Amino acid sequence: MFFCFDGDAAGRRAGWRALESVLPRMKDGRQAFFLFLPDGEDPDTIVRKEGREGFDARLQQATPLSQFFFDELTREVNMGTLDGKARLAERAKPMLAQIPDGAFGDLMKQQLTTLTGLGAKPSASAQPSRQPQRAVAPAQRRSLVRAAIAILLQQPSLAMTLEGHHFTGLRLPGIELLTELLTLVEQRPDISTGALLEHFEGREEQESLHKLAAQTLPGDEAMWTQELHDAVAQLEKQLLMQRLDELQAKQSQQGLDDTDKYELRELLKARSTLRF
Q: Could you give the CA distance from residue 142 to residue 57 in angstroms, rounded to a whole number?
């Protein structure tokens, strides 16, 4: 989605209000761009002066939500001081908490850490003797979807070790993006990380995917394969439970037809065999 505003102070304030309203809806896969027009201009006048192609060219240069967010917040503070960095963190954290769970929200928070240093890991020399046990905690807190996406970006061919994936329709942030990545690799088994990233060029998630691809994952290919398989298995289980909840709610509200009853019986049987 694109937001167009005047380039003056009032227009930027209106743009900021639009950003605040859209943050809670920025699940993975959604895009938002901000275009600030010359004073006194609007889309109609730009099209009349520059033509449709001229306006489209301006849209291509629109500012992504992530950049607009940090540009506006850092504009008002002195990032050369600790007080300024603290003020940035205080303003940004409540807003970033509104973003749905997923890679986009994680990377926005990571960018805040980069800018302020708050939440950054201490250097190796400053780690206490218990560091090896504590270091695994961040990996444990990663969402299943984000973990699977990170692995696919590091080693796309691992998608071919899966015997399919059956979690389409699961209502979790990032599911559509993960499904798209898996489908791309299935269609092009030899696709490289670079080619995967090129597929998302110009899209809102491009920056987040580039940052994920640049990270160094702990472990080796065998560990990544196991983690990917475990993540997909858990997502498939969550879809089963989601469908069970839907059918049981329907049963209590309006009853089930024969097809629904059969599906419910099969899902209950399947659930009894699952280990969570």
A: 38
